Amino acid sequence: MANILIVDDEAAIADLIQLTLAQAGHKSETAMSGSEAADKLEKEQYDLVLLDVMLPEISGFELMEYLAPTGTPVIFLTAKGALADRVRGLRLGADDYIVKPFEPMELIARVEAVLRRSGRLGTVRVFGLEVDPAGRIVKRDGQQIALTPREFDLFLLLVRNRGLALYRDVIYERVWGDIAEDDTRTLDLHIQRLRKKLGLQKEIRTVYKIGYMLEAE
Length: 217
Known about the structure:
By secondary structure, the chain is α/β, with parallel strands linked by helices. The chain is built from 8 helices and 12 strands.
C-alpha cells in the first residue's frame, strides 16, 4: 500500500482518483490548492504526488520546484493537448504525466509503474495472502504460491477491484489484451485454478450473467 497525495482543485476528479486508488489498495489524501499541498508535504511524507498543473495560489510547476529536492515521485495531471505543459513538467523532474480525461486502469498502471521504479510499491494483503505487484509474487504464511503469468495478472486485477463485479469480456481484454470471443472457457479455467491454488473457493465469486469478483474483506 502506497501513501499518495492528490493535488487537484476539481473535487469530482480528486474524488474519482481517490476511489480508484482505494480499489487498488492504496491510501491517499487530497489537496485542493498548491498552498494546501505544501502544508501537507511539510507534515507528512508521501510515496507519490499526483499533481495538477492548473492550481489556485501556487501552480503545479511552482510546487514541483518545491518537491524536486525531496525526491518524492511526481505524476503531472494535464489537460488534453497541453503538450507544452507535459514537456515542462518532465523537464522539471516529473516521473510521468497523465492526460485528462483518463481511464482508471491507465491511472493505476502509471501510478504503479512509477512506484515500482522508485522502489515504493509495497505488498497488498488480502485473505491471508501477500501480493507483491513489483515482484509478481503471491505468498501465504511466507511460502510462495506458484502462479503462471496469466494467473498472476488475473488475480491482481481481481485484487485491485475487490468488491466489484467485473464483466467477463472486460477481464479477458485486460488480462489477455484481446477482445473476448463468445467462448471464454480459458477465463473459467484460470479462475478454477486460482481458486484451488490460493484456497479462495468462496472468496472468488461467480456473478451470474456478469463475470467474477473477489469479495471485499
